[in-house]
Amino acid sequence: MAFYDKLFSALGLSEWCGTSDDKAPLSLADLAAQAGGEEASGPLMPIPSFDNLHESCNRIWQSRDVTNGIEEGFLAAKPVLKTVLDPITQPLSWMLDGALWLFEAMPWFIMVPLLVAISWYASRSRPVTIFVAVSIMLLAVVDHYDVAMQTLSIIFVCTTISVLFGVPIGIAMSKSDRLQKSVVPLLDLLQTLPTFVYLIPLIFLFSVTESKLYGIAIILYAIVPVIRLTDLGIRLVDQDVIEAANAFGMNDRQKLMRVQLPLALPNIMAGINQTIMMSLAMVVIASLVSAPGLGVNVLRGIRNLELGVGIVAGIGIVLLAVILDRVSKAALTRVDKTQVKH
Amino acid sequence: MTQPMVRLSGLYKIFGARDKDVLQHVKGGMGKEELLAQHGHVLGLNNINVDMQAGEITVVMGLSGSGKSTLIRHLNRLIEPTAGEIIVQGEDVMQLSEDGLRHARQEKMSMVFQKFALLPHKTVLKNAGMPLSVRGEDEATCDREAAKWLDRVGLSGFENHYPAQLSGGMQQRVGIARALSANTPIMLMDEAFSALDPLIRTDMQDLLLELQKELHKTIIFITHDLDEALKLADHLVILKDGFVVQQGEPQHILLNPNDPYIEDFVSDINRARVLRVRSVMTPLGDDKVPADAHGEVDVNDTLESMIARSGGDTSHAYVVKDGEQTVGTLDMTELVRALVPRVASEAGARQS
Ligand SMILES: Nc1ncnc2c1ncn2[C@@H]1O[C@H](COP(=O)(O)OP(=O)(O)OP(=O)(O)O)[C@@H](O)[C@H]1O
Ligand SMILES: [Mg+2]
Questions:
Q1: What CDD domains does this protein's entry cite (chain A) (predicted)?
Q2: Which alpha helices (DSSP H) does A106-125 contain, by range?
Q3: pLDDT digits 0-9 by tens, A299-313
Q4: How confident is the model at residue A209 (pLDDT cuts 50, 70, 90)?
Q5: What's the per-residue H, E or C state across B283-334?
Q6: Which of B101, B134, B164 sits opposite A248 (nearest CB)?
Q7: Model ipTM?
Q8: What is the sign, positive or negative, of the torsion defined by CA atoms of A67, A71, A73, A74?
Q9: Quick check: B156 pLDDT over 70?
Q10: Torsion sign across C-alpha atoms A101, A104, A109, A111
């Protein structure tokens, strides 16, 4: 005798519910209840969940039917999704694999000076450049050079793609209030979903051995700030300057290239900086789905309780994060400086 | 009379979603406050009819919110009118296609802004050459023209500075150089000197007059300052709540204000410094030049200089010359009378 029996008979639904023949497989709770005695000594009034209602009425679903339903729905949609998404995302796999190969194949005595030179070119700051050189050497000394380069190559590809897509999306959003209104909730969603949740549907769609799996997860997570800040940056451009651009007869393209983008650049750069940091955060988590790099060592540290391995890899990630942050921030300040307003 | 450079006729602007619908109320005589209270629309311009002659400085003056910026932005259609005609060099601006409008903005009208509106990430040279590069001129031409005009406004040597490194007065010189390098017949100046301190401002006014003597542009100049208006204007248009209260020759308006609003405006002015001999002299008619004339004066002398010259003696009289030609006589008694605002108008101003 379950709690909600009376409710269903009062509603005159006993017929419709049918007898509780309990052919359906029992839930663990049912088993426990049966073992403990004939009547479940549960709470006074159980919460009206699917499972609890099902006890009184067979026609009501059980909660596992819901999860099963979702899974089946997803599996049914999978072939269609896959035929569409697979070819579109295939280049991502190639790019990730290509970049991995390139970063690994490049001899260290070329790669390290190259990275230092890039840091100098971007930041024009001596302390930052020296810090980059020392950090890379530190990583190399403890034999983490290779994994660090793997991580770096993934970040490189994912940030580039995020910028290539994010900036135009941001521009489009700044031009159309309607588009902005519809995209912002999506961005909110991408940013608030716990990172692991992304991985679940992606694992179903693509095989774990494909690099685009983690590539997509990283990009979805990291593209948000660059979109947001491009949109914001363009909307914040001084209206007086826009008016001047109009008054001198600039067309939309000239306005965008000569006024809006340059004046929004500090904001866009801030967005790119955040995008880089977020891809680094995600690339560590993505090691769960076979992304190579420092994250793998962290994972090993957790799985095998190899404390030292995990901590060294963790410090490596911190170093990498500080390098990327300092270099991109220094580049940002440099851009900002030409636009100081007194 | 030749056709005006710019003609605004029957121009209305109402801010709001249903501007075309409420236009009839405005045409029926509804004022700015009523319109806002009853229909929630802001009356920007109300039946503006102004001709702006080629080679003249037309000054539009009015208090804050009277619609000056709205008016000037109609000439290059930065604001779309609710109704009315805008004719520039005989061409209806309202009929222009998008391309045609852009072309007109590039080739016919350049603009100087109150807040300068320079590109902060470009050097002074590139800022000044911007109108040319927008038209697609090659870089060398842009730089050459820009340097020429920067030199003309007294900024040579600052070509490679950024706007933020310059003072307000210098930034506005860049703004003027930018407008001049566009080489357009019409220049629109919206409170171009209002953000500058008084001394710099006088400098800039002198610079503008000096340039104008050479270039003979058609300048539409917005200001809320009567001294500035009187100094610059060939034709003065006075706006109030979106309509034209009075327009005409500035000296004439000063001596014959037709509205308490304008009397209020002109009552604080130093008339002796602003009024010129030509406005108060008696034109040469049948009567002969007085024999007891104390000397000859120029038509464009200010009354202040006349008072100084006569030593304050009101019994003096002078012969007025325009170049070689004798054009009238000046009686110091007349002159002193003109210095006092009309008594009747004084009373009218108090009432309002
Ligand atoms: N986009 C707009 N929407 C609604 N009302 C507007 C808009 N632009 C201007 N107005 C209104 O039109 C009127 C005239 O404004 P305008 O800016 O032309 O005044 P102004 O004479 O230039 O004043 P100021 O000296 O302060 O610059 C004001 O009442 C203003 O509130
Ligand atoms: Mg204004």
A1: TM_PBP2
A2: 108-123
A3: 999 999 999 999 999
A4: confident
A5: ECCCCCCCCCCCCEEECCCEHHHHHHHHCCCCCCEEEEEECCEEEEEEEHHH
A6: B134
A7: 0.86
A8: positive
A9: yes
A10: positive
Query: B158 near B82, Cβ under 8 Å?
Result: no
B contacts of A244 (beta carbons < 8 Å)? 111, 113, 117-118
Q: Which chain B residues have a beta carbon less than 8 Å from that of A262?
A: 119, 121
pLDDT of residue A112: 93
In b/e form, how buried is each residue of A259-279, taking b as 16+ CB within 10 angstroms? bbbbbbbbbbbbbbbbbbbbb
Give chain B's domain count. Answer: 2
Residue nearest to ligand 1 atom 29, measured at CA: B65
Secondary structure (DSSP) of A276-329: HHHHHHHHHHGGGGT--SHHHHHHHHHHTT-HHHHHHHHHHHHHHHHHHHHHHH
Residue A337 has pLDDT above 70, yes or no: no
Instruction: Read off the pLDDT of residues B6-62 as tens digits, 9 standing for 90 and up.
Output: 999 999 999 999 888 899 988 888 888 889 999 999 999 999 999 999 999 999 999
Report yes or no: B74 at the A interface, CB cutoff 8 Å: no
Taking the C-alpha atoms of residue A230 and residue A267, their distance in angstroms, rounded to an integer, is 7
Mean of per-residue pLDDT scores for chain A:
87
Residues B197 and B290 in one domain: no
Q: How confident is the model at residue B341 (pLDDT cuts 50, 70, 90)?
A: confident
User: What is the pTM assigned to this prediction?
Assistant: 0.83
Hey, what are A130's tokens?
A: 């020296």
Task: Give percent above pLDDT 70 in chain A.
Answer: 91
- What single-letter amino acid sits at A193? L
Atom of ligand 1 nearest to the CA of B66: 21
Span of A134-143, A222-231, B340-349 with lowest mean pLDDT: B340-349
Is residue B150 situated within a structural domain?
A: yes
Tell me whether residue B114 is in a domain: yes
Residue A340 has pLDDT above 70, yes or no: no
B188 is in which domain, residue-wise? Answer: 54-73+98-267
B194 touches chain A (CB under 8 A): no
Q: Which of B222, B238, B267 is the last residue before a domain boundary?
A: B267
Strand partners, A298: none
| CB atoms inside a 10 Å sphere around CB A165 | 14
Q: Are residues B66 and B204 in the same domain?
A: yes
User: Residue B193 is part of a domain; what is its CATH number?
Assistant: 3.40.50.300
> A7: part of which helix (H) or strand (E)?
helix A5-10
CB atoms within 10 A of CB B208: 23
Secondary structure letter of residue B223 according to DSSP: E
pLDDT digits (tens, 9 = 90+) for A312-333: 999 999 999 999 999 988 888 8
Domains annotated on chain A, with CATH: 1-60 (no CATH), 77-339 (1.10.3720.10)
B247 token code pair = 């327009």
Are the C-beta atoms of A18 and A58 separated by less than 8 Å? yes
pLDDT tens, B61-70?
998 999 999 9
Ligand that lies nearest to the alpha carbon of residue B68, given by its number in the listed order: 1
pLDDT for the residue numbered A21: 52
Same domain as B186, residue B153:
yes
